[in-house]
Amino acid sequence: MNADNSDIFGQLKRLFLIVMCLCGLMACIKGTILFRDKAVSQPDDKSKSQVVGLSQPGVTRGVTLRPVREPEVLPVCDLFSPLNRDQGLLKTVSIDLGSQGLTSWTELEDPVQRSLEYALNRPQDELALKRPGMSLTWGQVVQSLGDFLDLLPVLDRYPEMLANRFVWYGLNKKPLMTGYYTPEIKASLTRQPGYEFPIYGVPKDLRYGNVRGRKQFYRIEKGRVLPYYERGDMDVRHVLAGRGLEIAWAKDPIDVFYMQVEGAGRLRLPDGTRRNVLYGAKNGYGFRSLGRILYTKGLLPKDKLSKKHVRQYFLKHPERMFELMAENRSYVFFRLDDAPPEGTIGKPLTPMVSLATDRKFLPLGSLLAFEAEIPKTENGRPVGKRKVAGIGLAQDTGTAIRGPRLDYYIGEGNEVEPVANNIMTEATVYLLISKEALING
């Protein structure tokens, strides 16, 4: 089947689902039962006391779901607007898990469980989101994630259950979506010819805490509290050299710079083996794009600010490399680890599901639905766009992710770079909150 026929088949399949779900909705309105199945049957009077949640690993076992309760009032705020049930139903059946590389709703169990573990460790009565007219506690985030886990075993057959049990809150302003990934770079665990550029672990004198009324990274020198060293201090003045902080040595300093941008990396060692380096800490300065730095100095045109064009410039002007990189004062320190890349929640990221967000706009760990166009690739090169319409989880943050912004985690390895580095689009985003969470909150 060619790509065009596959797209047509997918559209027909989604249209069929929409028609069936609308039929089901009409049947419910008339008081009839269209679907009868043990997994989703409502409990009779004798079994009501046995209704339990399954917010733990192994949700693919049989479940009994609670009867649906409707919130009396749906909170509305400046940032979010709730969809009505019919709108939520249409959005639910438009979800295409295949666009995320998933074949079943149950494949979301592990990443959702990670978000749930994070949210459970927060004070349940504290606010995870506070906006004029609407607030959300960590307890409500936990309830929503748990209710979603309960639904996973039945959503492959009955996706409309997501609209029955959740309220879709649409972001009033479409956020800008970019992409990120875990790059692979050439490096050695020991310094040797060809591997001369240090990858630093976390310095012992790097501290974090309240300084003059706000939290920041700092160091203490001769009894004085000072901002921590900038990139130029590390890369140009070499203030960390000789402290034994080097966890590896890279072949290319540009690789180290962009690995810091991504927040994690994979080292390909001279013997062909690989080691992961994960985020350890940062020095606390704001991030500046290297392409933007070159543009503001008149060294690159506005339409050529990508990593590819930056590399080409430094191949011609290697003597200016460290000077210009130092204009971005932000610096990231790493740790060697065999674990997969982690997000801010301290749990592994899931490719094509995890999103980096601003926690002031979308609570960390929260359940999202989104639609966006991302690059379509062939033979490692972008050849157009394709639509992703799926389920996301707010599991990471980023220095440059502020306000209505999303960073979409694409995966590990340089083969996904053409997708990750070429995402620059508006996304449609929904915060999914269970009706039980709104009632109990």
Mind explaining what this structure looks like?
With 441 residues, the protein is of the alpha+beta class. It has a domain at 197-337: Beta Barrel (Ribosomal Protein L25, Chain P), CATH 2.40.240. It has helices spanning 3-29, 85-93, 109-120, 138-155, 161-165, 231-235, 253-262, 290-296, 307-316, 321-325, 417-420, 435-440; strands at 80-82, 127-131, 134-137, 166-171, 176-182, 184-188, 197-200, 207-211, 214-221, 224-227, 246-250, 265-268, 274-282, 332-337, 354-356, 367-378, 381-396, 405-412, 424-426, 428-434. Strands 1-4-20-16-17-15-18-5-19 form a 9-stranded mixed β-sheet. A hairpin with a 2-residue loop joins strand 9 (214-221) and strand 10 (224-227). Helix 1 packs antiparallel against helix 2 and helix 3 runs antiparallel to helix 4. The chain is globular and about 65 Å long.
Q: Count all strands and give the number.
A: 20
Name of the CATH homologous superfamily of the domain at 197-337: Barwin-like endoglucanases
Report strand %: 25-35%
Give the overall silhouette. Answer: globular
Instruction: Name the poorly predicted regions.
Output: 1-6, 24-62
Calculate Rg over CA atoms: 24 Å
Note the main sheet. Answer: 9 strands, mixed
How far apart are the termini? 49 Å
Second rung of CATH, namely the architecture of the domain at 197-337: Beta Barrel
Mean pLDDT across residues: 87
CATH topology of the domain at 197-337: Ribosomal Protein L25, Chain P
